[in-house]
Amino acid sequence: MIQQLLRDALAEAAEAEGLTAPSEIGLEQPANRDHGDWSSNLALATSKQAGTNPRELAGRLIARLESQNVAHVDSIEVAGPGFINFRLHNTWLVEVLRSVVAAGVENFGSSAANAGKSINVEFVSANPTGPLHAGHGRGAVYGDALAALLEWTGYDVTRECYLNDRGVQMQVFGQSLAARKADEQPEEAGYMGQYIIDWAEEMPDDADPIEWGYARALQDQKDVLASLGIEFDVWFSERSLVSDGKLEASLGVLKERGMVFDDGGATWLRSTDFGDDKDRVLVKSDGSYTYLTPDIAYHHDKFSRADELVNVWGADHHGYIPRMKAAMEMLGNDRDKLDVQITQMVKLMRDGQEVKLSKRTGEIELLSDLVEEVGADATRFTYLLQSIDSQQTFDLALAVSQAKDNPVFATQYAHARIRRVQVKAEEAGVERKPLDEVDLTVLVHEREIELLRVLFRGPEVVEIAARERAPHRVVGWVRDLASAVHSFYQNKECYVVGDGVSPELTQARLWLIEAARIGLAATLGRLGVSAPESMWSDEAEAAMGSDDD
RNA sequence: GUCUCCGUAGCUCAGUGGAAGAGCACCUGGCUUCGAACCAGGGUGUCGUAGGUUCGACUCCUACCGGGGACUCCA
Fold it and tell me: In chain A, where are the structural domains located?
């Protein structure tokens, strides 16, 4: 690995200067290529220790480095306030290509960084009282992609969805269905959406509105999630916490430990003792539980099943975090192992107009409508485009655009273009020789180098994205890769097979595009987006074929 | 009032304490379908404001300004 090589060399140089190098020597690929291929801040970090200014120290370190004759290194220079910049021969990128091909689509970007650790990712967890809307979609796709990212880095991942299948809202849901069935308006606090009217019509006369509605809603949610390729390992029922006694058990522990008190006929959790801004009611004065109580039992149960927990919640739940963390701490769990990711709101735009998501008014943008309109790939990719920390505008027109200003299209198209070249090469009778027999050092064109440089960054991006819980970083990277593929493909000096291209160059470029294809297919696959063979539909392709005649 | 997210190019947004970015839009040139449902160039910025920490801050800390969201014996 090139970084290790350079770090070792830097450490050796520092030692020769009598310096104690930092445990992790700073080394990065500068954004600006005028600053070389790799850059280290070692001199800046140790100049105080050396008792000299960074630039002078950098000069001394460079003299040491030059005498080491480090592999791949072409030249070293001091720059800016004291950076040590390395310029490398392209030979180091040949190793990148080999490692990508060796990993293949299955293993590209994967690591064992978190091997042996289990993690539970809970997401969606929408009330089973209605269909999922477009706002839920963001959390659903984010959670699923995050789970994939975590698997990529070695975690044993459980995808889990919590079902709030008991309590007040289920009663209200059942009453609303029953009211509509009787052609009446639901009571004021009831569910007003059009779907209640539709479902009430479907509901058999003798059905229990709550149980029938629960099954109906759950199936509806499962169907739309399946259409997005999302499947859960565990559907966890809130009712089961009551029936198997886990709710009473965790409440009992809290009582035993003096974590609750009675006031006004209600039972309160002393959450302020553990960082919450108010105490919270667990058992209301009418004897019923609040939403929080079973949820505490639920999270305590999850802690018994996984080393780490991730919750994906909507922005309206952020205030809920301190009380849950407080309760987990009271029950003896490590609050820092509960990681809550908050997704900010999504605005849907169609024809420049905002589409409202309000459940109350019934003006609801269903996730199923969204998927039907733009397709599963575009839905997933678009949701994943930007950080969940910022509000998102989801442009329905852009998501289906068949042009490169649509990031989904541009990225998939890059894969299709590579496949087309590969197929054409085969049709022309050009066979790709085994990698060992191919001279990759002929890859020196700027477009080729750029492809390899992007590919090199891939695994590191995956690692950062998993740590930061930020799938959008992988999306950013795969867009960069696609862009590099398009630049390569469009460049007339970069034909893979052609009259002016030597057989040696053809072989090297066949492997180059295969490496790029691996990067695209592996990343898109993990994000749950397809890597198509062609962007044309079968019919369009047939039509084009006949045009050639 | 308290908590929280956001504030970076005209717009939409990336940015891991290290030397300000992408796409779109815009301008210039190219492109008779060949691998062009385009290509090559061009950046226009007090990184919301003011302090602080640091050799170094878009990044960390504090306060303030502006916008979104949340505060319940609701879920």
Answer: 2-89, 123-242+344-400, 407-547
pLDDT of A546 higher than 60: no
Block residue for tokens 């058992």: A283
| C-alpha closest to that of A300 among A218, A245, A235 | A245
Model confidence pLDDT, tens digit, residues A441-474:
999 998 999 999 999 999 999 999 999 999 999 9
CA–C1' nearest nucleotide, residue A39: B18
A537 φψ region: left (φ > 0), alpha (ψ -120 to 50), beta (else):
beta
**How distant is C1' of B74 from CA of A76, in Å?**
65
Region A430-445 average pLDDT: 94
Nearest nucleotide (C1') to the CA of residue A314?
B69
Reading the block at residue A458, the tokens are 């891939």
Report the protein residue whose CA lies nearest the C1' of nucleotide B38. A490
For the stretch A358-400, pLDDT in tens is 544 455 689 999 999 999 999 999 999 999 999 999 988 888 8
Q: H helices within A384-470, ranges in order?
A: 396-400, 407-427, 446-467
Point out the nucleotide closest to A389 (alpha carbon to C1′).
Answer: B5
Looking at domain A407-547, its CATH superfamily turns out to be Isoleucyl-tRNA Synthetase; Domain 1 (1.10.730.10)
Residue nearest to nucleotide B14 (CA to C1'): A476
Q: What is the pTM of this model?
A: 0.95
Instruction: Name the residue closest to B40, CA to C1'.
Output: A491
Distance A498 CA to B29 C1' (A): 27
**The domain A2-89 is classified under which CATH number: 3.40.50.970, 3.40.50.1820, 3.30.1360.70, 3.40.50.150?**
3.30.1360.70
This complex has an ipTM of 0.94
